[in-house]
Amino acid sequence: MTAVETSSSERVTGQRLLRREDPELLTGEAKFVDDLAQQDVLHMAIVRSPVARAKIISIDTSAARAIDGVVGVYTGRDLKDLWQQPMPCAWVVTPDMKNPAHFPLAVDSVNYMGDAVAVVLANDKVIASDAVASIEVEYEELPPVLDLEESATDKVVIHPELGTNTSYVWALEPDNAKLEAAFSSAAHVVKGRFVQQRLIPSAMEPRGLLIVPQPYGGEYTLYSSTQIPHILKIMIAVTLGISESKIRVVAPSVGGGFGSKLNVYAEELLAFTLAKKTGKPIRWMEERSENALATVHGRGQIQEIELAADSDGKVLGIRANLLADMGAYLQLLTPGVPLLGGFLYHGLYDVAAYSFKCTGLFTNKTPTDAYRGAGRPEATFAIERGMDLLAHEMGIDPAEIRRRNFIPKEKFPYSSSPGLVFDSGNYLPNLEMALEKVGYSKLREEQFQLRSQNSKKHLGIGLSCYVEMCGLAPSKVLASLNYSAGGWEAATVRLLPTGKVQVVTGTAPHGQGHETSWAMIVADRLGINPDDVEVLHSDTSISPHGLDTYGSRSLSVGGTAIFMATGKVLDKARQIAAHQLEVAPEDLEYQDGNFSVKGSSEKKMALGQVAFEAFTAHNLPDGMEPTLEATTTWDPPNFTFPFGTHIAVVEIDEDTGDVKLVKYVAVDDVGNQINPMIVEGQIEGGIAQGVGQALFEEAIYDESGNLLTSTLAEYLVPSATELPNFELGSTFTPSPSNPMGVKGVGEAGCIASPPAVINAVVDALSTFGVKHIDMPASPEKIWNAIHQD
Amino acid sequence: MFPASFEYVKANSIRDAISILSDDDDAKVLAGGHSLLPLMKLRLAAPGTLVDIGGIRELSYIEDKGDHIAIGALTRHHDIEHSGLLKESVPFLSYVASLVGDPSVRHRGTIGGSISHGDGASDLPAAVLALDGDLVVEGPSGERIIKASEFFIGFLETALGQGEILKEIRVPKITGGWSYQKFNRRAQDWAIVGVAAVSVGETKVSLVNMGSVPLRAYATEETLKNGGSIEEASEKASEGLQPPSDLNASAEYRKHLAKVLVNRALTETLAQ
Amino acid sequence: MQISTTVNGLSHTNEVEARTLLVHYIRDVLRLTGTNVGCDTSSCGACTVLLNGESVKSCTVLAVQADGQEITTIEGMASESGLHPIQKAFQENHGLQCGYCTPGMVMAAASFLHENPSPTEKEVREALEGNLCRCTGYHNIVKSVLAAAGEMGGAR
To answer: Is C93 near chain B, with CB under 8 Å?
Structure first.
């Protein structure tokens, strides 16, 4: 591992430091949003549509109003004049993108099961729940559109005012002539059609909020279980027409997000509006079955990919075509999510000709949006399944086809045909390490043995090599994608008078351990103890600038901002120390928290002393401002490109179709690592989520558009019993795009694992002539695949 | 999620409970609550009164009665799983109990509750069927014994009359082999299909989640009795049955699974 | 209805509605908010507490059913001398990320290790089958419980 710059003789970064977040989470002391005490609070509950598509004929709220303790009942009509703007979508991906107006409460029609139609305020949450149950809504049901291909026909148009179900068509076609030539000259062309099923993100903490109006100051404090306190604040101001200066958003302890809390939700806007209307604090906590309906879903795509290869299996061109399910409306980033994968359908292979097209389509289902990986798991799945199809067609080993196509080390920084510049990569040793770790050749022998014994137990080995783009993002690149925000991150580093350090970050952690890692970065740079570094975050009045946590951005963008702000503080401290010690700044050395004059062991000054001098300002260089603090807003010059190899081994029971994941090896390269323990945790959790997609999870709707998997009894989040231990390894290829050489790790596991598992399943079933199986590969699907003719 | 309002009555004795239940047809018995409370929270059930029999300690026991084992209705899955007596005399039942739900569920759920609920997808009703157990019930007009094979009538419907409470489950000691094959995708879930096989004299086979009630695989048993092979008997596993099609499996796949699992269960049972 | 309980060693007598779930009694009446609610169907185990020393899902028990009984919540695990060995093992083995499932995991583990002080990895996985975690992939949770078993004297 290449070292991150340090002033510490005992390097802090790279250590497996235990998390400072843990004691309060382990003792129940941590406060999630529903744990916050509040006097005189009203409880909000929502009446949701039980049907997929209908006109609202009438809403009878009289029984609810009659319940003792019910304070108010509001329908969409009651509130419709209070919205300045429809619910926000921040990503207009094409100039002619169709975006139906969508308000926090439906007014005349509902367009998915779970669409909010009325809201209750009551003195008690049980009463609110009773009131919801007593409200009668009459619907005139309309035929729903549930299937993507059917949606594209426009036989039934969901939003008549748009005239079509197509929200947009987005294409990336750098050189069509070159692509045509690649396909016409190809020795092999393989095609795949893969379904990326809808997923329910299922953070263990459902969403929730508490809004507290300050009646005299006119300020509102919104506590929300969100990944994006900063973005949420701006969006509330814009959507509700409230001055941004009156809004404070706090994300307390947040119980997981995975992209599903990277949004501006109807309930946040409703609670804000009702708090304004009533002047009372309002609390809302989502129930699990509501979460399945009212929180965004992930994936939901039909992918077609074609690979053209020469007679050696070298891929010459790739054509990818997507139908992407938007759901009923566009949420904050809905249309952009599939496009985040649009640059990566060639994976980590050197492919000269490329095209990608995505059609965003409306359906009468819960809106989709970011879910861990957001576009990159889909792209990785398509190319990694495609590579296996090619290997199978040519009769060569899946590892070999990958070796032949990797972007060679010498080509970095690599300009990809879709137009990205991959920062750094060294793919071959990473693959070889994974193969070695899993015992690849021995497994192949074992597989051969079982097959030759006609065993009913089938072993499958699946490879997945991935590269992803994370560290969202260079602001100029976001501008070119028409995303309506930047991608920078802000940090302030402040020396307190006692010599302790305060870090203010714009990142908003919800399980990632930022407090620990950010303190490590600062401690290393300053050569001090990480315990002396305090990290403040997730409160817009403490950390006013920030763009929050998603897209594996926090370390490479937010961490870099901290690293650079710390450098500025150190530079100023050096000026002060030089002034006090009466030497030139360049004559000072800095190590382990002390400035000392080169060549003299006596003349030195501790950082804490410098901090105190900066605070008293009694003796500073002429013209220097008091206090020791610096702010950096870092806009990254490029994405970062982590990569790795994951190998899954499955066993399939031919008689039942039962599939067991028996071994899993992951070798990831996320650049330099700040805390390898946290890195491993991120990878492991990501793997499990991807295995969930590959084998267990699917949001299933019936033919009328009812969501059948609305509880955790039906939506199969895997438990410890269904998963093996994971065997991890690392290679280290630092990113040149930031001074710490870090890349990002939040989504890697989840990007890599679905194709590894499905490639293993298909490998196991290859003796039955099975070429593909869609996710989740349930026992019944596997059994059907074995017995298809 | 909150249940709708109800009256709560704590019964101090089984007579006490029976008298409340006989007077109130909107009343339901609450034991461990692990079948009823989830339904009430989803408001799929809203009884007017809950009669809590959980405090009647004398209904929790596992006793050796010579030719059979008597199990009090309030005996928890956990106790059945860990009972030395059952592990010795009816290890099959301990094993089945160990696969119900998860450990926390097994700390609360009771065998009487599970059987009275009569869910065709539950493990223990099918286990008691395969054991050909006797169910002792007490009601306003006294005590009676219902054969397990006559207890499960329809979807969540049992032979319990108004005011009747299941008091004791009697199961024979197992002299021969046994097997329980539970097929599911996650360990905590209900069986997609389950098969119980027990040899006490002759071999009895029951099926989980192959219909609206727990079922005996009579055609399979008959085939075996007439000297048919395990293969032949397994082929009859789902004869005449109409298993459900749901999120986890189609009816056709369930029929197939039943054959495979019956085959495995019989192979294991008859090998012992 | 009036109920009396002993929670983390302290006696309480409170008035509750019959339909109050144990978890809501613990969180809303006693204001012990370490116990979390993650689902409606007894599937996730976030609400796991000890009832008379055994793990239960407090969303599937009525508060009135706990009348006269002893309850331990996550707040009752650490002592003046520091974290409970299970809590310590979770920190040392990075057995938590967002921490929402963690109190339930710790309580389920406590109940399990009491019953089986020296478990195998497979037994730990089975013991946690009713507790869902979305962050860790369970790898480090399993490691934590095995480490705690070792620390508590039951290492195999």
So the answer is: no
